[in-house]
Amino acid sequence: MIECKQLTKRYGDLIAVNNLDLKLEEGDVFGFIGPNGSGKTTTMRMIATLLNPDYGEAYVCGKSIYTDPQAIRRLIGFMPDFFGVYDDMTVLEYLEFFAATYRIDASARRKVAEEKLELVDMSFKRDAMVNQLSRGQTQRIGLARVLLHEPQVLLLDEPASGLDPRARIEIRNLLKRLGEMNKTVIVSSHILPELADVCTRVGMIEKGEMIVDGYVDEVMRKARQRILLHVRVNENEERAAALLESHDEVDGVTIKGGMMIVTLAEDVLDYSFIPSLLIESGFRMSLFREEDVNLETAFMELTKGKQQ
Question: Is 162 found in the same domain as 84?
Answer without folding.
Answer: yes
